[in-house]
Amino acid sequence: FLEAFESLLRFAENRTSSLFETAYRPMAKEAAEPVKELFTDISLYILGAETTVESAVLRFFDSLFPLVYSRLINPGITDLSEDYTECLRLTRQDINPFGHYSKNMVTELSKSLWASRMLSQALSLGIEVINTTEHAALSKECSRALVKMQYCPHCQGLTLIRPCVGYCLNVMRGCLASVSELDAQWRDFISTLEYLTNEMAASHELEIALSGIWNSINEAILHAQLNGPQLSATVDKVCGQPKQQEGNLSSANIVPVKEVTETQTFVMAHTSLSSKRREFINYMKRSRTFYASIAERLCDGDLVMRDSSTCWNGEDVV
């Protein structure tokens, strides 16, 4: 799952980068780092880091505005000092140059990434539980019972006789009493996984949300360009007028972008994640009774004698 998440993120990041390289070439090189930081923050959020989708998205638009303003709205600016850049970043929060697109992007991503984050954390917890119980220590009483069940018949020369099913179940249930206590919690865990996978498959489709990032950014930049004169007037009052080349092209060319990479291809390329989710949850649902029936699983097979009237009951052959 984590590999699939990372694959989706890289796909979406490449799409977003190609947007700048195709439509906004004057700022493509400088926009590369903010784009990389955005998708790194999203990845960290999915993995459970103490961050939010809102802070990641707004931090990206804070970094993007100085570039849009100096490379597209006022391409003649030559003096983009650190102080002036910081002023533009802070001004972005007040004048909202990207309209409602930045907030819409937060809303759309928050819905889908929340379910992905929870599923990622749930899977990590499940792995931790399984690893812990896999190495559960056996008590001395359990060890004695296992030796008695497996090897005491050998002392009577009965090397081919196997334990009776009922005897095996009694021994295993005694040995695994502490592990079987996880049954109720494990059932709840499976139900939670089922809920999260259903959430991701419903209105919180991760693939759709990630495939829409480039379009939200494109619409936000176009909105800022269309409102360039008003933004320039406000910025000049707050941050002052920077040095500009002669014949400043204040009305930068607006380059509408229809589709950088077709959405259908993006979604189809990752339908495997949806099918993996379905296969995974169906498999996990079959393990709902795993910890309750672990003794039965261990006593089912070569360990015990089946379809025979002769077996070892701990004391004698019966």
Q: In a few lines, what is going on in this structure?
A:
It is built from 15 helices and no strands.
Oligomer designation: single chain
Morphology: rod-shaped
Provide the structure class. mainly alpha
Mean pLDDT: 84
Let me know the largest β-sheet.
none
Strand content: under 5%
Order of helices and strands: HHHHHHHHHHHHHHH
- Compute the number of helices: 15
N-to-C span = 51 Å
* Helix content estimate: 55-70%
Q: Structurally, how many domains make up the residues?
A: 1
| Low-confidence parts | 247-254, 258-262
In total, how many beta strands? 0
- Write down the Rg: 31 Å
Keywords: Cell membrane, Glycoprotein, GPI-anchor, Heparan sulfate, Lipoprotein, Membrane, Proteoglycan, Signal
InterPro entries: Glypican, Glypican_CS
GO cellular component, one term: extracellular region
Protein name: GPC5 protein
What tags apply to this protein structure?
single chain, mainly alpha, cell membrane
Question: How would you characterize the overall build of this protein?
Answer:
It is a single chain. With 318 residues, this protein is mainly alpha-helical. The protein has one domain (1-299). The protein contains 15 helices and no strands. The protein has helices at 2-23, 25-46, 53-73, 82-95, 101-134, 140-151, 165-175, 177-180, 183-201, 206-211, 213-226, 228-239, 263-269, 271-286, 294-298. α2 packs antiparallel against α3, α5 (101-134) packs antiparallel against α9 and α6 (140-151) runs antiparallel to α7 (165-175). The chain starts with a helix and ends in a 20-residue tail after the last helix. The model is unreliable at 247-254 and 258-262 (pLDDT under 50). One of its GO terms (cellular component) is side of membrane. It is found in: Cell membrane. It is a lipid-anchor; GPI-anchor. Belongs to the glypican family. One of its GO terms (biological process) is cell migration.
